[in-house]
Amino acid sequence: MTTAVVLSSQLAVNPLDAQSLLAAFGVLGVGVVMFAETGLLIGFFLPGDSLLFTAGLLCTGTGQHGVRLSLGPLLAAAALGALAGAQCGYLIGRRAGGTLLARSRSARLREGAGKAEELLARYGHAKAIVLARFVPVVRTVLNPLAGALGVPARVFTVWQIAGGLVWSLGLTLAGYALGSSVPNVDRYLLPLVALIVLVSLIPLAAELYRGRRRARTGEVRG
């Protein structure tokens, strides 16, 4: 009976909770989630930011359930999943066009598609592809949208690699650095994850502010 209870608790994985995913699947789970969130539209709800940060934190031996990950394999899995996922999403969009997004019944997914299209139109391909990495849902839908809109494959590949490495390795190393320097930091994990998500939005917010400022300046001159 006890064995059955323990087994069932291990199998009860919450896909929205980073620690639950890491306790169940470890480094492999990070790679799979990165791929699904950035390459498959069904992965838009997955906790990419918090998963990377928490995984980096757990490399220091901090956290519940005695989970400890190795930093080297974790960085490799995070980067590989994020880069391969984005490239897969782009190829899906290239072949399917906008059909998949058009058929989606998810209001959140459609909203993300609208923001992704706005990013591409306002900032151009390179900057939009990098910025999208830091915005939940947008980083899921921009990749197939870029393929559907005919963004050149070479341009997309170069900039999704640049943005993907900064995002995946940056958040993971941020978690690792914090876990290494602050004792018992897991007690404050939830507010820290919220802070990391907010910080990750700073590049987009800065670009939006500069864009609006340039637009206002142009109107005044006109």
**Topology as a string of helices (H) and strands (E):** HHHHHHHHHH
Radius of gyration: 19 Å
Averaged pLDDT, please?
78
Biggest sheet architecture: none
- Count every beta strand, where a strand is a DSSP E run of 2 or more residues: 0
Q: Determine the number of helices (DSSP H or I, runs of at least 4 residues).
A: 10
* Beta-strand content: under 5%
* Fraction of residues in helix: over 70%
End-to-end separation: 77 Å
The residue ranges in which pLDDT falls below 50 over 5 or more consecutive positions are 1-11
| Secondary-structure class | mainly alpha
Task: Give the overall form.
Answer: globular
Feature tags:
222 residues; 10 helices; disordered N terminus
